[in-house]
């Protein structure tokens, strides 16, 4: 904030009676060319002589404030889409923006202006999830343009707020516009969809967020589109975004996308030329450092200073609209207190979102689990893994509930036996496979009454200096988002101001005594992202004191004697980005995990297999590959081989097997031998609670698939082909495993009396549609009423049908409700005419289909469309 400057120097840019545009222009006019260029990069430095504080534009809020320490973690975006609940989406986004505002003002009070501490958020991701192999599809709202638009607009409204003067946050629609893998090719790939696919599939959500959501920012993509860099495209940014859609905000490049223009795409010969091209074509803000060359570009005649002035002014209008240059008492959002962060109401909303996101794919009657079930075996690699809750781009939840814990909490009077069984994927050093050493077997010193290890937290990466904090940690099992344990400690009351460790480049030493309960051969295992060293009785037994781009583990086998205390020391350092560390063991006589899982299954009444994926194997441009995965994308739609092997063995026991899937994309499972399948996505901090409640019938699942699930033997189009034919429910001609919009319930819903207001409308008219929906079962539940439209005489290139309305309604047993839809023909029926270069509404016969999924139309009706009246 610049309140001190406001009081001391009444400069024209601090005049609150003037417009933001006038104030921004006045401020920019006082800057040197070098200062202007520096303000066009995400890590903008301060200009002290003008009272401009440092500001980093980079913040993430995909499903909760990310990478800024403690924050409420909601289901991953794909899970939020599965709720098909627009009002809930806006509630979630409003909660995220409350926490973001509170965090920002706390950072400002502490004079912190770094990355992940600002008000400009690079969310939502509204790319179309066209192919289930894409690792970042989890960040999207699925495969359908209409669903994506409705969820995206609600999310933007929740982030940006409703104040007529000041934005609450800036939302960013990303990545404009044709961007959905492969991850390995994104820095040099040229996407060339047909104009029909571009306008009918890839554009609509972006157009909606600009025209209806008034989104303040748009992020370009890495790849080229029709030969132009998406972050420097005259067609995308000048012609479509600004000219056709009237976008008034600012454009930010994806991080280091401007480098790609000259280095990988080779569109321009130099850094200066690449930077100039990006600015001239409409990218005002760069995430990266190429814009440092803009002064040289001006001197070389590649761009004018007036063009740079226009770009910088847009950026300062945005900052001023966020209230950054005004007294806090004028800004409504500045009054949000720090206490809102991780508030109980936010946790309750995270639980509600998780409950609504669950999709029941199959149920032969085993769910909800009957009172006769007395023993449950919970088996699988994601049952007790916090990462299975989080996906990617996440904050640090205060008390995450794993699926195992959620089942235990819900299983009142039922014995729950857990066995991990197998690693998540083949060939991965899976640090979460080994149980943590429990506090009962650790003590800080021989004379300490506490249990656990003494932790010394350093603000340096080499354990040097005086510890910022010393405390006792009961277990060593931590996973921090982007290396940020500071808020974790402070939120628990264990660190005061100035005591927390930095986001990156910190270290921790744990020391104390290990007390083996029995004599025999133990295996001690440590794992970390980044470096770790383990000592027993002063002897180093593990040494991996080097940076790593992932969690990696190692172990050592030792003969230990009961009744003896062993001196134990674990040292750890974090380099940058994600951080985590674990210390576990396997005790003498412990069975191998696979056999342990089968033993648990044989002694159970029901097996709950919890498996699938985590953000450790699917995500953004990963450097580590495993069988079935490449760079964060997937090369195999099936469960990883390790899990398939375990699942077959569990099924051979003859016990009913309920599958709970975690993941951010469609999985080609084999349902024939499964009694039930529940898709939980990455369900957020209370995901385990929601799953447990659903399995035992406390919650009736009502989520729907925002993506098509394909069979394992389905041949998919080439991943790098952006043609829509053969993809998604709109253009896939085969039989899916589970269709878009699918989801079962513990009750039944009936549809009746579909009514059209008129049988005929003009191409610029509207059509009101009503249908009666009844809960015909014995349990309350949610039904997602879905309306699809299709053209009767489809032309080549037409979608088979298009979602054009949906409502999630809650009905008590026997309750009937009339659900109404209002179709605008100009939006609901438009198709892009490539020859004419515009949208048209073809005349002729259409069919309205209303039901429970894209493949389950319960009622239909036809109507006619006439050419628009002059």
TrEMBL record:
<keyword id="KW-0378">Hydrolase</keyword>
<comment type="similarity">
    <text>Belongs to the glycosyl hydrolase 3 family.</text>
</comment>
<dbReference type="Pfam" id="PF07691">
    <property type="entry name" value="PA14"/>
</dbReference>
<dbReference type="Pfam" id="PF01915">
    <property type="entry name" value="Glyco_hydro_3_C"/>
</dbReference>
<keyword id="KW-0732">Signal</keyword>
<dbReference type="InterPro" id="IPR011658">
    <property type="entry name" value="PA14_dom"/>
</dbReference>
<dbReference type="InterPro" id="IPR026891">
    <property type="entry name" value="Fn3-like"/>
</dbReference>
<dbReference type="InterPro" id="IPR017853">
    <property type="entry name" value="GH"/>
</dbReference>
<feature type="domain" description="PA14">
    <location>
        <begin position="448"/>
        <end position="601"/>
    </location>
</feature>
<dbReference type="InterPro" id="IPR036881">
    <property type="entry name" value="Glyco_hydro_3_C_sf"/>
</dbReference>
<dbReference type="InterPro" id="IPR037524">
    <property type="entry name" value="PA14/GLEYA"/>
</dbReference>
<dbReference type="Pfam" id="PF14310">
    <property type="entry name" value="Fn3-like"/>
</dbReference>
<dbReference type="InterPro" id="IPR044993">
    <property type="entry name" value="BXL"/>
</dbReference>
<dbReference type="InterPro" id="IPR013783">
    <property type="entry name" value="Ig-like_fold"/>
</dbReference>
<dbReference type="Pfam" id="PF00933">
    <property type="entry name" value="Glyco_hydro_3"/>
</dbReference>
<protein>
    <submittedName>
        <fullName>Glycoside hydrolase family 3 C-terminal domain-containing protein</fullName>
    </submittedName>
</protein>
<dbReference type="InterPro" id="IPR002772">
    <property type="entry name" value="Glyco_hydro_3_C"/>
</dbReference>
<dbReference type="InterPro" id="IPR001764">
    <property type="entry name" value="Glyco_hydro_3_N"/>
</dbReference>
<dbReference type="GO" id="GO:0016787">
    <property type="term" value="F:hydrolase activity"/>
</dbReference>
<dbReference type="InterPro" id="IPR036962">
    <property type="entry name" value="Glyco_hydro_3_N_sf"/>
</dbReference>
